[in-house]
Amino acid sequence: MASYEDEHNVKPPSARPPRPRIDFSEFFSALPTATTSSSTTTDPPLNGSAASNLFTTLAAAYQPNLDSNPTATLALIIEQLLSSATSHEPVDGVPDGFLDALDRVPKSKLKAEDECPICGERFLDDQFPLVVRLGCRGRHVFDLECIAPWLKIRSTCPMDREGLVKKREVVVVGEEEEEEFDENYG
Amino acid sequence: MALPKRIIKETERLVAEPVPGINAVPHEDNLRYFDVTIHGPTQSPYEGGIFRLELFLPEDYPMTPPKIRFLTKIYHPNIDKLGRICLDVLKGNWSPALQIRTILLSIQALLGAPNPDDPLANDVAQRWKEDEKAAIETARAWTVTHAKV
């Protein structure tokens, strides 16, 4: 039977020495421990130190390759991974249910020139705008679609950087205290 | 994937109403990749220089900041030898309400106001603190050598 090379009228590839493989096994084995810190199926938050360790592990995986075959690119990759490990900002999103509880802004309250600070589109260009107002002092408004992915990684208002979660935590603590109080009576 | 409308709008505005001293042009074959030039601010050691940068908008932009790097060599305590920039709004202080335009303005401002107390280029920052006059002289010399067209 004709070989692939005969059929395509090409020379068989010269036997090249196998490239050194990068051993990612340690990185991949570390991966699940970092991503399943929360049992929920939706976007488990990667906590800061676990993510940082991952960057370090990945950098370590590249290191032997650099020693045997030093290239500028590889050195750069390792350097960037290590800097990501040290300068990593922890994910600090809002808790589940926060987005659903945001105040909706009815279409009638929106002015013609109002626009979403994230996408830059005028709210009323959309026939059915889904606009929410944050609990920050500026009461800033956004398309829900635009603000949702941001709040999942950072619980701050994009306009004034005011934290949005603390106030709610206070409320939750209050509720818990109330429950304990009731138990005392029961 | 289609280019988000926001990126198209930002690009159009960068071209239609350019920021003085800043120029950003997207690559024809990759509209997320921009060639940027920033003119050194007057009254700074970078005055008269034109600095080239590359700017890339990652897939999840604007939820994550643009990736920006100096291509022109520059002597600055907050810019390392690979051209990486130490600037809060490019890291933890990023907000999706910021734009390419505002970020480039911040970088231009950083050239006018180096901050050796928050260094990325440690040797440069060290020198900046020990002998500011000499450091500024070096920055000026580098501008002449590397950033003059």
Automatic annotation (TrEMBL), chain A:
<dbReference type="GO" id="GO:0008270">
    <property type="term" value="F:zinc ion binding"/>
</dbReference>
<dbReference type="Pfam" id="PF13639">
    <property type="entry name" value="zf-RING_2"/>
</dbReference>
<feature type="region of interest" description="Disordered">
    <location>
        <begin position="1"/>
        <end position="22"/>
    </location>
</feature>
<protein>
    <recommendedName>
        <fullName>RING-type domain-containing protein</fullName>
    </recommendedName>
</protein>
<dbReference type="InterPro" id="IPR013083">
    <property type="entry name" value="Znf_RING/FYVE/PHD"/>
</dbReference>
<keyword id="KW-0862">Zinc</keyword>
<keyword id="KW-0479">Metal-binding</keyword>
<feature type="domain" description="RING-type">
    <location>
        <begin position="116"/>
        <end position="161"/>
    </location>
</feature>
<keyword id="KW-0863">Zinc-finger</keyword>
<dbReference type="InterPro" id="IPR001841">
    <property type="entry name" value="Znf_RING"/>
</dbReference>
<feature type="compositionally biased region" description="Basic and acidic residues">
    <location>
        <begin position="1"/>
        <end position="10"/>
    </location>
</feature>
From TrEMBL, chain B:
<protein>
    <recommendedName>
        <fullName>E2 ubiquitin-conjugating enzyme</fullName>
        <ecNumber>2.3.2.23</ecNumber>
    </recommendedName>
</protein>
<dbReference type="InterPro" id="IPR023313">
    <property type="entry name" value="UBQ-conjugating_AS"/>
</dbReference>
<dbReference type="InterPro" id="IPR000608">
    <property type="entry name" value="UBC"/>
</dbReference>
<keyword id="KW-0547">Nucleotide-binding</keyword>
<dbReference type="GO" id="GO:0005524">
    <property type="term" value="F:ATP binding"/>
</dbReference>
<keyword id="KW-0808">Transferase</keyword>
<comment type="similarity">
    <text>Belongs to the ubiquitin-conjugating enzyme family.</text>
</comment>
<keyword id="KW-0833">Ubl conjugation pathway</keyword>
<keyword id="KW-0067">ATP-binding</keyword>
<dbReference type="GO" id="GO:0061631">
    <property type="term" value="F:ubiquitin conjugating enzyme activity"/>
</dbReference>
<dbReference type="Pfam" id="PF00179">
    <property type="entry name" value="UQ_con"/>
</dbReference>
<dbReference type="InterPro" id="IPR016135">
    <property type="entry name" value="UBQ-conjugating_enzyme/RWD"/>
</dbReference>
<feature type="active site" description="Glycyl thioester intermediate">
    <location>
        <position position="86"/>
    </location>
</feature>
<feature type="domain" description="UBC core">
    <location>
        <begin position="2"/>
        <end position="148"/>
    </location>
</feature>
